[in-house]
């Protein structure tokens, strides 16, 4: 059977004219095309509203190569990489067929980097740092003196896909799974990245190191502002950066500012090679022609820095839910063996075998209570909704963010320090189940919030310095992997 060739129509797109019959102004209008000037509507349209045809069928073989393998000379090659530097230079011209500008890109994969001079006329290439792109080109050259290509990527190709059908440019917007070309040049697993230093070391003189690298996490993303300069107005954005040693500000200019749109504070990690810098009272980082920026590189140090950043932002839940199904309380209740722990034993056990789950009993004294104080502050019960703590002297309360009613649990901070002969548990750090609260307070949550201040004062006095037995369980993680890491009290024997 003959191979399926596309029909002739697939090579010619049906172009719809914006000035079709429905939209055509009346012939008396001065903007209407005078009838009979010799040009058809299609011909006029093609000049006034050029359609950008981004489809491309290569006419010859292009050899797929890694960037590190590429060399200068006339040869049809194709390569894939990520944008690590971009600079858009407008070249205003009145000539209708001339390019309107050139975007200078540095594209890198795991093996090397090269400069792409991408000329454009009508195409609006929406490019950003970290973008995965493919280039097809028939020629590569070496830039001399850093004029056509920066010294960090001297090999370059100059392409004008809109005019030259031998070259093509494609950005992988939807097909980018975030894995390809994510390792920086020179990275070997298990080995430190050459030239990588902490931000503090960079500030303290490391900026003099050739090919010095800093690995930083985005802390904040400023607003895009317009700045006047000699060449007109340009956009600027300041990005707060940090690692575990210091902080800095990265300034992005012009078309590079769009790169920061998908970045997320405390999540996005940037590996910046050869950063531009200015150090006064704080460190100012910039992207120069030789700078490479790897966005979220797949390296162990980046994973560590991101988890470091997340730990910093993680705030304790005001009232974490009691972990259901983690502890077999029925078995513990009926067990013949009842182990009485002291607080020091628990500390020792948890440190020696952090992944071990264990259950037992504790005999502690309640050193102070804050029932009346929390009652007066309208904070006897609490929970969190929409990331915001929610307090009330009621069993439910309305979240101010989502306007939904949420069930509240007893505020763990009504209990102060709990101590035995070997140690103490800080205020609010123990997780009580609803049943344990009821056993301790001798009343349900609803009865607690319905009580008068007088009754609560009496309750507080009765519980103060009382020795109680706590049935507890300890586990670092829930079944699903959620962190518990607290003493969980499922029963109280007063
Ligand atoms: Zn809410």
Automatic annotation (TrEMBL):
Residue ranges, compositional bias (Polar residues): 1-19
Low complexity composition-biased segments: 25-35
Record-linked InterPro entries: MEIOB, NA-bd_OB-fold
Region ranges (Disordered): 1-44
Biological process annotations from GO: resolution of meiotic recombination intermediates
Gene3D superfamilies on file: Nucleic acid-binding proteins (2.40.50.140)
GO function term, MF aspect, one: single-stranded DNA 3'-5' DNA exonuclease activity
Entry superkingdom: Eukaryota
The protein's name in its UniProt record: Nucleic acid-binding protein
Lineage: Eukaryota, Fungi, Dikarya, Ascomycota, Pezizomycotina
């Amino acid at each position: 059977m003959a191979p399926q060739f596309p029909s002739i129509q697939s090579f010619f797109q049906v172009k719809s004219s914006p000035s079709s019959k429905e939209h055509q102004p009346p012939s008396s209008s001065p903007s209407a095309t005078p009838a009979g000037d010799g040009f058809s509507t299609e011909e006029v349209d093609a000049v006034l509203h050029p359609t950008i045809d981004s489809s491309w069928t290569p006419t010859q073989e292009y050899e797929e190569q890694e960037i590190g393998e590429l060399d200068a000379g006339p040869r049809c090659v194709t390569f894939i990489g990520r944008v690590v530097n971009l600079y858009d230079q407008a070249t205003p011209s009145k000539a209708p067929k001339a390019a309107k500008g050139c975007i200078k890109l540095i594209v890198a994969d795991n093996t090397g980097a090269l400069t792409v001079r991408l000329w454009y006329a009508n195409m609006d290439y929406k490019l950003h740092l970290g973008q995965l792109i493919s280039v097809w080109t028939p020629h590569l050259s070496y830039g001399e003196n850093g004029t056509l290509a920066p010294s960090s990527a001297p090999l370059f190709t100059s392409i004008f896909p809109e005019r030259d059908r031998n070259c093509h440019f494609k950005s992988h917007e939807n097909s980018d799974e975030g894995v390809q070309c994510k390792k920086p040049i020179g990275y070997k697993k298990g080995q430190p990245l050459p030239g990588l230093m902490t931000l503090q070391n960079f500030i303290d003189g490391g900026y003099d190191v050739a090919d010095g690298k800093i690995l930083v996490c985005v802390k904040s993303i400023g607003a895009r502002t317009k700045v006047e300069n000699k060449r007109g107005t340009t956009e600027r954005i300041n990005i707060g950066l940090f690692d575990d040693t210091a902080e800095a500000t990265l300034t992005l200019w012009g078309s590079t500012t769009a790169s920061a749109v998908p970045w997320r504070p405390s999540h996005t990690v940037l590996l910046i090679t050869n950063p531009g810098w200015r150090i006064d009272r704080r460190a100012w980082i910039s992207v120069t022609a030789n700078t490479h920026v790897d966005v979220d590189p797949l390296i162990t140090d980046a994973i560590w820095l991101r988890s470091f950043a997340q730990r910093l932002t993680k705030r304790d839940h005001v009232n974490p839910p009691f972990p259901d199904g983690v502890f077999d309380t029925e078995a513990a209740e009926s067990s013949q063996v009842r182990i009485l722990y002291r607080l020091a034993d628990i500390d020792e056990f948890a440190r020696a075998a952090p992944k071990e789950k264990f259950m037992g009993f504790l005999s502690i004294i309640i050193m102070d209570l804050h029932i009346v104080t929390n009652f007066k502050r309208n904070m006897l019960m609490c929970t969190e909704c929409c990331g915001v703590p929610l307090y009330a002297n009621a069993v439910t309360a309305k979240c101010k963010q989502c306007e939904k009613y949420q069930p509240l649990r007893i505020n763990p901070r009504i209990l102060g320090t709990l101590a035995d002969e070997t140690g103490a548990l800080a205020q609010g750090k123990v997780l009580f189940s609803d049943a344990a609260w009821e056993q301790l307070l001798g009343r349900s949550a609803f009865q607690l919030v319905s009580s008068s201040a007088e009754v609560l004062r009496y309750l507080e006095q009765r519980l103060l310095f009382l020795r109680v037995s706590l049935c507890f369980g300890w586990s670092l993680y829930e079944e699903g992997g959620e962190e518990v890491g607290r003493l969980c009290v499922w029963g109280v024997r007063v």
